[in-house]
Amino acid sequence: MMTLGAILGLSVKSLLNRRLTVGLTVLALAISVLLMLGVEKLRTDAKLGFANTISGTDLIVGARSGSIQLLLYSVFRIGNATNNISWKSYREIAARPDVAWTVPISLGDSHRGFRVMGTTKEFFSRYRYADGRALAFAEGRPFDDLFDTVLGAEVAESLGYKLGQQIVVAHGIGGAGFSRHEDKPFTVTGILARTGTPADRTVHVGLAAIEAIHLDWKGGSRVPGMSVGAERARAMRLQPKSITAFMVGLKSRLGAFRALRAINEYRREPLLAILPGVALQELWGLMGTAETALGVISLFVVAGGLAGMLTMLLAGLNERRREMAILRAVGAGPRHVFAMFVAEALVITTAGAVLGLILLQLGVLAVRPWIESRFGLVLPLDWPGARDWALLGLVVAAGTLAGALPAALAYRHALADGMTVRT
Amino acid sequence: MIDLQDVRFRWRAEDAPVLDIPSFTVTAGERVFLAGPSGSGKTTLLNLLGGVAAAESGRVEVDGTDLAALSGAARDAFRAERIGFIFQMFNLIPYLSVIDNVTLPCRFSRARSAAAQAAAGSVEAEAERLLRHMEIGAPALLRRPAAALSTGQQQRVAVARSLIGRPRLVIADEPTSALDRDVRRTFMELLFREVEAAGATLLFVSHDEGLAQDFGRRVKLAEINRVGTAEAGA
Questions:
Q1: At which of A274, A301, A330 does a domain end?
Q2: What is the pLDDT of residue A304?
Q3: What is the ipTM of this complex?
Q4: How many domains does chain A have?
Q5: Which of residues 382-421 of A touch B (CB under 8 A)?
Q6: What is the rounded distance in angstroms from the CA atom of residue A240 to the CA atom of residue A87?
Q7: How far apart are CA A79 and CA A337, in angstroms?
Q8: From the CB of residue A200, how many other CB atoms can be counted at a distance below 10 Å?
Q9: Tens of pLDDT along A170-212?
């Protein structure tokens, strides 16, 4: 319709005339939209990154406890195992015909706040993350000698370690090494490329090394008068009696549930096997509240932005009565005045939404190298998804609807004032 | 052109009537001076003629159309098409350019837009022509916001706007009261010349009797409005 186009044209000119206040309102809206979309993006991408922590492993087996607890200590290196599992049980399960490979892990020691994990060389080829990405070495190679160590990217970076450097592992995870295995220092032979997984924060050593540094320890403290030197340790048979957990790859994923049941019903020792994907889902579910809270906060911020726009439109209402009277004199009806105010709200919210989207893309472009190297989260620079468009549409719809309030008031003014404003 | 019969108007049912006009007519092509001090129901009468307000009873006929028979929206469309208004001041939308102010009625009336195009090829060209005739032709002025103009210039722009697209009726409400004496003289001359050129009927409302001599017909609002006389008598 001709007049509707005319109204939109007038709205835009009127808004341009008030470009400072309108600009600030648009900016406020854009920032709230940026926050909303940013939270949404981080949420989906973090969820994806989280689910990407481990892949390619069919089962994780540990001592019987909770599945989330097992996942936390074996994959995220958070918390402690309540119990170890015996080497014998491990070997038995590893020998099952449906098992393709196993990687044992042994936890309990630390180095300056980072967990030390004893494992086999196979860990570096078997551990997968994201869509089956393997660990890569930024420098060096896997451990070979008994007292070699491979550092996660974060460990090397934050402590400034280089290849060939000697480090000492502390007993326990209490932090500032009150009891250190200083008689058996490790040599850094490899540094892993950053993955964004807990591997970045782990000091990897051979399983035998864990045995070796604990030869002269018993029950968490040094055995008085007993000291086994590093060279003597080398000569000993360092077969662990127990490990913390182990990762299992099956020959066929279809057999996962059967293997799971068999391990959970293992008679010689109470074991727990979990499917990492399922446990990750459970863990993410626990964080659902935080996720919802973030979403709710960003919605409130958007509501704040819209309230700001409403304030601006309402504040200008009285000054613009004359403008409305002129429009009425040249033939505008009260409904045109209504449409003009709604159109202004529509233009402002659309501009805010578009600017917010642009800011988000620029922001992603700016921080993604940092986020990727820092947290291993790959933020894809892609077009907003259906959910984002729905949210944007919702913002524009809510803003336009909110514009109905000043529009209704302007309508009443236009009706009462007619062509002349009595002042 | 204008035919009022037994028109009564009051703002609210419990108020006293503001207007009670037994009869008032203006024929097409006439130039009528309507004298009325402020508060005599003048604004109300203009709102009735423009179809912004509706009479409580009686007949308000403008250009052969009974406004009472039209809906609010139809009266708005009617006003857009048939009537050009010039007010005392604040005629222009400050943020629109001079040209945009003049072409404003064409945004609301297809007929006036078409007439302007027929006259000069485009709405803008017609606006420029009218502005030239009103002696605001300097191209530099045309694109400037209306707020940048002097009051005298603004009033002349308002005349150009009231005439664009050749409406049948031009209603001027105290258009000169904000102007200086000399400017007033020129303004009246330009107004008469252009209204005549456009072939429009002019209803000129003012309390300045000094301007009345140039009009073919002079009417006092108090003479046609019974409310005014009743109040004066009380």
A1: A274
A2: 92
A3: 0.90
A4: 2
A5: 418-421
A6: 7
A7: 64
A8: 22
A9: 887 765 546 778 888 999 999 999 888 889 989 999 999 998 8
pTM for the full predicted model: 0.74
What is the residue type of A358? I
Spatial strand order of the sheet with B31-35 comes to B83-86, B169-173, B201-206, B31-35, B217-220
Asked if residue A406 is part of any domain, the answer here is: yes
Is B134 in a helix, a strand, or coil? coil
Q: Could you tell me the CA-to-CA distances from B91 to A97, A375, B43, B159 in Å, in that order?
A: 94, 63, 15, 10
CB atoms within 10 A of CB B157: 26
Taking the C-alpha atoms of residue A402 and residue A395, their distance in angstroms, rounded to an integer, is 10
Q: Best of A19, A330, A336 to disrupt the B interface by mutation (most B CBs within 10 Å)?
A: A330
Do both A7 and A89 map to the same domain?
no
Query: pLDDT tens for residues A299-348?
Result: 899 999 999 999 999 998 888 888 889 999 998 888 889 999 999 999 99
Q: With CB atoms and an 8 Å threshold, state whether A3 touches B108.
A: yes
- pLDDT confidence of residue A178: 61
CB-based contact A418 B53, cutoff 8 Å: yes
Which domain, by its residues, includes A379?
A: 2-51+287-417
String of DSSP letters for B44-89 = HHHHHHHTSS--SEEEEEETTEEGGGS-HHHHHHHHHHHEEEE-SS
Record: contact A323-B93, CB cut-off 8 A:
yes
Kindly list the distances between the CA atom of residue A74 and the CA atoms of A84, A282, B195, B207, in Å, as whole numbers in the listed order.
12, 15, 92, 95
Residue B234 confidence (pLDDT): 31
> If pLDDT is split at 50, 70 and 90, which confidence band does A1 have?
very low
